[in-house]
Amino acid sequence: MHIHILGICGTFMGGLAILAKQLGHHVTGSDQNVYPPMSTQLAEQGIRLMSGYSPANLSPQPDLVVVGNAVSRGNPEVEAVLNLGLAYTSGPQWLYNHALKGAWVLAVAGTHGKTTTTGMLAHILEQAGLNPGFLIGGVPLDFGVSARIGGRRYFVVEADEYDTAFFDKRSKFVHYRPRTAILNNLEFDHADIFPDLAAIQRQFHHLVRSIPGNGLIIAPAWDDNLAEVLRMGCWTPVAHTAPAESAHKAAWRYRLLSPEGGRFLVFHDGNECGTVEWGLTGRHNVHNALAALAAAQHAGVDPVQAIPALCGFKSVKRRLEIRACVNGITLYDDFAHHPTAIATTLEGLRARVGTERIIAVLEPRSNTMKLGVHAATLADSLRSADHAIIYQPQDLGWDAAAATQGAAHISVSASHEAILDRLARDCRPGDHLVFMSNGGFGGIHAKTEARLRQPG
């Protein structure tokens, strides 16, 4: 079957393309924004990419068009699909019909940490010999690919609350019907499609309503927004997670053994299970790990077996990923684009590097950021950086300088070239330079590396 995917370079749709190719289909796709790592991954899989949307991309006519949520009515390729009467479906529905149906689905939902936690869980199940299928919204370094069909018994999926398609405005995760569900956290996000937090909570409750009574929900004990969701009605056992010092009731706990989160003890039902020692930083990643351990146990992997697997977890591309070390300056690429994620990422790095300088360069690219929803909290999220540069594109819609007024360590720049000049002039050996964006950031990482390597 010839399957054509609209919006193929999105992390979710790119993963679908890989699954479809593994199932033996001929796969093509089109997208407006083509950039690594997804474009590179798809090219390596032998999947043909078409840049831009056009009716010509539908010739020869595919047997099925899978429509991503980034395209809508008015898109020339969408209009051609409808006018030609081609068969079409959404990505989440295709995923359920062809990969999830009949499998033990382990879904990871939440505002933050979905990609990393999904990668952790898939890695634990893989090391336990369960050969899981997975679809992850990034490229896990342990697998080198964002999706695979696996052995068809277990499937780990990143469960996004974003809408499904222009013709289905439910959250993607409503389609997945998991037996094991991690609800990592819940904050207001996606202001382009959700009017308020309550609207997101309703979608999360739709997910909760689909989990069977013999399943398991894993949630942090301290998240009041998730607690409200569960109070709407819950028919599934809930395993809570919490720090050891917390007063909350929780079956799963951790105790930090190092301030940056590189070592921590794991407890289940009051019993010590073992010590995780790994290369990740930040308390947020410890929270992610605890949830992954709980989900893995539900699928039959004992913590005694799962903890050594976590110790070897390499993380996911673009999650504080070291891109280069130039003249003693370390360059990182990070996907953080919500103030909470920005803050926790920088806090974790600060705990690891001590007093060494951290310079954060932020592109406020997400739809929510462009709307200015998080403008008031942006300066505080960058508090762990010694200096931060915010890129202000013409289409931002709000004044980043005004929003961060009074934060002396933050500057605003309207051009990549000005940012490059500043970094080349000010960076010195021992600095940690963190680029933060949920997009390609105009290739600024490679441009900065090249500029820093120039003599003199």
Automatic annotation (TrEMBL):
ATP binds at G110, T111, H112, G113, K114, T115, T116. It comes from the Bacteria. Its EC number is 6.3.2.45. Pathway: Cell wall biogenesis; peptidoglycan recycling. Reutilizes the intact tripeptide L-alanyl-gamma-D-glutamyl-meso-diaminopimelate by linking it to UDP-N-acetylmuramate. SUPFAM superfamilies: MurCD N-terminal domain, MurD-like peptide ligases, catalytic domain, MurD-like peptide ligases, peptide-binding domain. HAMAP family: Mpl. Belongs to the MurCDEF family. Mpl subfamily. It comes from Methylomagnum ishizawai. GO terms for molecular function: ATP binding; UDP-N-acetylmuramate-L-alanyl-gamma-D-glutamyl-meso-2,6-diaminoheptanedioate ligase activity. It catalyses: UDP-N-acetyl-alpha-D-muramate + L-alanyl-gamma-D-glutamyl-meso-2,6-diaminopimelate + ATP = UDP-N-acetyl-alpha-D-muramoyl-L-alanyl-gamma-D-glutamyl-meso-2,6-diaminopimelate + ADP + phosphate + H(+). Pfam families: Mur_ligase, Mur_ligase_C, Mur_ligase_M. Residues 318-439 form the Mur ligase C-terminal domain. Keywords: ATP-binding, Cell cycle, Cell division, Cell shape, Cell wall biogenesis/degradation, Ligase, Magnesium, Nucleotide-binding, Peptidoglycan synthesis. This is UDP-N-acetylmuramate--L-alanyl-gamma-D-glutamyl-meso-2,6-diaminoheptandioate ligase. PANTHER family: UDP-N-ACETYLMURAMATE--L-ALANINE LIGASE-RELATED, UDP-N-ACETYLMURAMATE--L-ALANYL-GAMMA-D-GLUTAMYL-MESO-2,6-DIAMINOHEPTANDIOATE LIGASE. Its cofactor is Mg(2+). Residues 2-99 form the Mur ligase N-terminal catalytic domain. The gene is mpl. One of its GO terms (biological process) is peptidoglycan biosynthetic process. InterPro entries: Mpl, Mur-like_cat_sf, Mur_ligase_C, Mur_ligase_C_dom_sf, Mur_ligase_cen, Mur_ligase_N, MurCDEF_pg_biosynth. It is an enzyme of class 6 (ligase). The lineage of its organism: Bacteria, Pseudomonadati, Pseudomonadota, Gammaproteobacteria, Methylococcales. Residues 108-296 form the Mur ligase central domain.
